[in-house]
Amino acid sequence: MIILGVLFFSISVCALIIPVNSDLTGKEDQGIPCIGTTNTEGDILVRSNGIRETFGANGQGIRVGVIGNGAESLRLSQQRGELGTVNVFDLGSGDEGTAMMEIIHDLAPKAELYFHAYGNNSSDFKKAVTTLADAGCQIICDDLYFFHQPFLEDGDVAQHISSVIRDHPDLIYITVSGNFAPLHYQGAWKPGLSAGPEQTFHDFGDGNNAIHMYLFSGDEVIVTLQWDDTWGKSTTDYDLFLTDPQKGEVIATSMNVQDGNSEPFEHLVYKVKGTDPERVSLSIVRNGENTTPNTLEMFIRNISPDQVDEAVVKDPYDSIFGHAAVPEVITVGSVGISTPFDISPDSSRGPVTIKNPEPALRFKPDICAPTNVQVSGVGKFPVSFPGTSAAAPHVAGVIAQLWGNFPDVPRDDIKKAIYNSAVDLGSSGWDETYGYGLIDAVRAFQYLSEDYKPPGQENITNNQTL
């Protein structure tokens, strides 16, 4: 049966508490067995098991909020022993949230979990962030990104998360770097050939005015272009064109008008309807004067890099954007689960170029964690769990472990501990691919032990074997 629990916090937030073995449908269980648990390989790879088994670092006393698409199969995950009680504000649809919580629970089984689906838009997402923060979550982990948010400045989502972090001094916010490294372009506007009266093609380099792609039956390619005009005040008018190079026909466009009250944003979607493959060309066209400089940034999604000819749009660097670029947020990239823990091909990399209101370069990502790890797969969720969405909850789980055993440590010192103790995988120190490296729970615990002694463990030394 469904048990409704009203949780009284300072703002009287209400949540649906889903205890183990509850039935979200209101029907009695039809003999679903408890088949044991599936543990993420990341538990061993980031050495969470070491501090849990030696020092009882299990996240006790820490509230962890998760924002994802949904946790529809939460009850089934609980019945299989993958999750305990979860405080649910909005169940959503799908099960990426379920999988994320399973990873956190594997690492920090005593942490108190909260879940809020991200909703259908950025406004719903901001509400979810506020709700979890006001519910007392010390850690919030999401795996969201919004392509209708600025790439080259802080949009309303980034600003909202910054303000929530500022207003909740005991909150650590964790998000993904994104999975957009394979097909990304950033470059300066360069006038190319004339496309018509008052229209100019962008030159991608060496006189190349188009990007050539090969699409298969059923492919739906998505192209998003932005540039460095101020969001909502764009005066430079760009368009996207997809053409059939053999017939010379335009088959798809994005032609938003930028008139000073518009966003520097174009978004093209094209789906192959027939059974035959198609050869297509993608162009950026500028309307009006063509001398004002701009930085252009473009992502191509839903197709393989092998389907695109030009290497210029396969630049993985500076492909982090949105609230993942907020300095106070922990931004997580993904690495493989076997040594030497190479960066995942799709894991977005830094640094982050900011153009407005003042030019800046932000050093992201912050840290890495494993991907392609085992989860239960309830709700037909992919097994193994791919992408940076699998990496971020490992970081949330480790932080819950550390903070549970070192409850008096300020959040900035927790962050400093995981950065300074990470296993360096790239260039010495921070680098734009791995951040500070692979998170290591044992080394972070030892780092904190130098200045903070967990209750009852005052005699720990940095030389103690875990």
Describe, in plain words, how this protein is organized in 3D.
The chain has 466 residues and is an alpha/beta fold. The protein folds into 2 domains: 4-180 and 319-449, Rossmann fold; 184-313, Jelly Rolls (Sandwich). The protein is built from 9 helices and 21 strands. The strands form 4 sheets. A 9-stranded mixed beta sheet has the order 1-2-4-5-3-6-7-18-21, sandwiched between helices. Strands 9, 10, 11, 13, 14 and 16 form a 6-stranded antiparallel beta sheet that branches. A 4-stranded antiparallel beta sheet has the order 8-17-12-15, with no helix packed on it. Helix 2 (48-55) runs parallel beside helix 7 (388-405), helix 7 (388-405) runs parallel beside helix 9 (441-449) and helix 8 packs across helix 9 (441-449). The protein is elongated, with a radius of gyration of 24 Å. The model is unreliable at 1-13, 21-35 and 459-466 (pLDDT under 50).
Named at the architecture level, the CATH assignment of the largest domain is: 3-Layer(aba) Sandwich
> Radius of gyration, Cα only, in angstroms?
24 Å
Total strands: 21
- How many domains? 2
Q: What is the structural class? A: alpha/beta
Tally of alpha and pi helices: 9
CATH class (first level) name of the largest domain: Alpha Beta
Strand order of the largest sheet: 1-2-4-5-3-6-7-18-21
Shape: elongated
Low-confidence stretches: 1-13, 21-35, 459-466
CATH topology of the largest domain: Rossmann fold
Largest sheet, strands/sense/barrel: 9 strands, mixed
Distance between the termini: 43 Å
